[in-house]
Specification:
Helices cover 41% and strands 14% of the residues. It contains 10 helices and 11 strands. Strand 4, helix 3 and strand 5 form a beta-alpha-beta unit. It is globular, with a radius of gyration of 19 Å.
Length: 313
């Protein structure tokens, strides 16, 4: 493959966190930076239930902004992609400040992948109304965009309000940090069209990506926005039945509302499938592997960079 129209970027994360020390994770991020990966992904939970049957891998979560700051300091090119940050979990003024600061620290490498959340038990433990999560998400995002872009920000909403405030530092990226909105369905599509710089769904088949874009693009046009400006990324190029697919099976079982990607076991199969996503409209994919040691993950990151990524440059 060749040409700008055939370019597909790849990112990765180190999940589960409980499998590695923090120092080992940092070394893997540095390796990804050196190998030319586009993004290092930062997943999030804040206060998960202590279900006895759940493995520690589903309970061990670092603070994404602290991790992101450290990774920013030891790398030079790789982007920092929240994958995803649950918007209602964070007060928007504080989150806007934190993200803007991280964008300065990283010299403009922050990508704000977001969702409205799905775990009712976590919302309940945080004292946040689950049935209001969509409206909270939209209002918080609007407030953060105002804080990032306006010289004297003012905002009046149901959940947050401020008037003629000083909000510095501003992000390096203008007019603000890119917001990549996850999810599939009427609500997420509407949010993408109105507020998103990109669409970042998790684990959709190429056919579902085509379907989603066919619905998002007309909504963008109604907003007076150019559909061609939309960044499209997909999380879930899972090679060898890794943790992403295991998590999906454990959580969704046979009840997934969308068609998930087919399983792939080899790099060659991954290249073929990534090509399908590229033709569907994606320009980024998060890749994951089956691994049990940092050496194994490092080897697989190097192999993918060597054997797969050149096909999409």
């Amino acid at each position: 493959m060749a040409g700008a129209g055939n370019k597909l970027e790849f990112g990765f994360g180190v999940f589960p966190y409980s499998y590695v020390s923090f120092a080992e994770m940092a070394e893997l991020a540095k390796l990804g930076d050196e190998l030319g990966y586009y993004a290092f992904t930062l997943p999030e939970h804040l206060l998960t239930p202590n279900w006895p049957q759940a493995p520690i891998s589903t309970k061990f979560w670092y603070d994404t902004m602290v991790i992101g700051s450290y990774i920013a300091a030891i790398t030079s090119k790789i982007k920092l992609l929240t994958s995803v940050s649950v918007v209602p979990y964070h007060p928007p003024v504080q989150m806007a400040k934190t993200l803007a600061t991280l964008d300065v620290v990283s010299n403009g490498r922050v990508l704000y992948g977001v969702g409205s959340g799905w775990m009712k038990a976590e919302f309940r433990r945080l004292g946040i109304p689950f049935n209001k999560r969509a409206s909270i998400t939209e209002e918080y995002l609007r407030a953060m965009k105002e804080l990032w872009s306006a010289e004297a920000p003012s905002f009046s909403g149901k959940y947050v309000a401020f008037e003629n405030v000083a909000a510095f530092p501003k992000p390096v990226q203008k007019p603000g940090i890119p917001i990549y909105i996850g999810g599939f369905g009427d609500g997420p599509f509407r949010r993408v069209a109105a507020l998103g710089d990109g669409w970042y769904p998790m684990s959709l088949s190429p056919k579902e990506v085509i379907k989603g874009l066919s619905l998002i693009r007309p909504l963008m046009e109604k907003q007076g926005r150019d559909p061609a400006s939309l960044w499209v990324g997909v999380s879930g190029l899972d090679i060898g039945g890794g943790e992403t697919r295991k998590w999906q099976h454990d959580v969704l079982g046979e009840n997934s509302p969308v068609e998930m990607p087919p399983p792939v076991d080899t790099i060659a199969q991954a290249v073929d499938l990534a090509g399908e996503y590229l033709r569907a409209g994606a320009r980024y994919m998060s890749v994951s592997f089956k691994w049990r040691s940092t050496h194994e993950l490092a080897d697989k990151l190097e192999q993918f960079a060597r054997e797969a990524m050149p096909a999409f440059r």
